[in-house]
Each structure stands twice: as C-alpha cells, then as structure tokens.
Amino acid sequence: MSSAVILTEPARSEAPAALALETPRYRRIQERPRWISVPLRFLVPALLVAGWWIGSATGTLSPEILAGPPAVWLAFAELYESGQLLDFGIASLQRAALGVGCGVVIGLVLGVLSGLSALGEELIDSTMQINRAVPFLALVPLFIAWFGIDETFKVVLITVATLAPMYAYTYLGVRGVDRKMVEAARGFGLTGWRLVFGAILPTALPGVLMGLRICLSLSITGLIAAEQVGTREGIGYLVTLAQEYNRTDYMVLCIVLYAVLGLIFDAVVRVIEKFAMPWRQLSVTR
C-alpha cells in the first residue's frame, strides 16, 4: 500500500511595502545676518565702556585710580596732534612684526623637522622643551648683557617669546597627520619638500594657525617687556612716561593701544584662516 506524500506550499507572507526614497535636501549654511552679528560682537565691550564711563562720571572711579573716557580721549588727541602717537605705534608694530616673523619661521622649521624625523626629535625636542620651561622674561637681564639695549635685544626677546609655542603646535600638528594620507600622497609622486608643503603642512594647518595666534598674543607681552628698557619711542616708552608723571590717562591709553594691536594681529590670523581653511566655516553652528 503506497502512501502519497502531499507537499503543501508554505503560506506566503505578505511582502512589506516598498519604502519610498526621498532625495535629501541640501542643507545650506544658515549665516546670521550682519546687522545682527556685528552689533553682537561689540555688545560686551560697549557695556564695559558704558560702565567705565558711568563710574567715572558719577565719581565712583577716582581719576587718580582710573581716568575716565573723556580724559583718555584728550590724551589721545594730544598725542595724535603732536605726531608721537603714529610714530610710537609704528615703532612698536615693527618690533612686534619682526620678532614674531623670526620666531614663527624658526619654530615652524624646527617643528616640522622634529615631527617628521626621529633623529630630528632626538636633536631638537629636548632643547625646545627646556626653552619652553624657562620664562622668557627671566632672560631679559642676560639678553641685555649680550645684545645691549638697542633694537637687537627687543627683537630677540620677542623671537624667543614666540618660538616655543610655534614649535609645540607645529610639532603636534605634524605628528597628528594621518599616515594613510601621507602614503597616498607618496603614491601620487610627492616626496621630500613637495610632500611637506603639499600634504603634511596643509593637514597640520589648524595647529600651525593656533600656534600663530598664541605667538601673536605672547608678542604683546614680549613687546611690553622689551620697550621698558632703553627706548625713546614705542608704546612701552609711553607707559614709562605715564608712570613717571603719574598720568593715568596715558596709562589707560597705552592699554587701549596694546588692545588695538592685539585686535590687528587677531584680524590677520582670521583672514589667513578664511582663505587657507574655508571648510572650517562649515562646522560652525549659528
């Protein structure tokens, strides 16, 4: 007796409905209108100046302790009419620019050599760490004995002040470059200095520019220390005169001039960042 095997087709499960794919929307960068962005940048400084003005006008701030904005403005007008303000500002700017230029170039070269080569790291890094550990202001008496009190001393002091941060950030930036990217660049025929300038430095550019920003900030400190010794022009010389004659309006004016000098340096770095790294603006949340 033969038994028939009946094969039954399994029940078909209903297929899920096809998912509809949508074309992703292009997400544009929502930039804040300039009529809002610009006032916001000056809001906090304006509030500080307003508080300073009100405090001096009501007598809360004594003129012997802190001169008011009208007195500072009169000091500015006095120096501007005499021509000293422009001469002092240009002299300080030249010293700072020359010292920063030397420090940035030397720190950049040493950072690249130390970051790319084990031999370079062994020869350079320990010396640079010693230089970074020693406060550059402690070297002022020694530099005066070596270079005198002329312009050479001032430029060398600013150079030493900016050398260590530029080296450190360049070294970290070069060491942080992806090895796969370097191998890919070599596959396209980049070797030697072409590899450094074409692939490694552009990748390490964020760290290099951060080092440049810190160097410019430290150059102001070095400039203040350098212009306190043996100079007859510059903002530091104006500070010395203000101390001798107890002119708080001149003292505040010198602080404002140093702040303006720092803003100029910061604007220079911002312009470099805008043209050298345009992709960084894409990550900014407005």
UniProtKB/TrEMBL annotation:
UniProt-annotated location(s): Cell membrane
Topology of the protein relative to the lipid bilayer: Multi-pass membrane protein
Keyword match Endoplasmic reticulum: no
Major location category of this protein: membrane
Signal peptide: none
Keywords from the named record: Cell membrane, Membrane, Transmembrane, Transmembrane helix, Transport
Protein name listed in UniProt: ABC transporter permease
Presence of the UniProt keyword Cell cycle in the record: no
InterPro entries xref list: MetI-like (IPR000515), MetI-like_sf (IPR035906)
Source species: Rhodococcus tibetensis
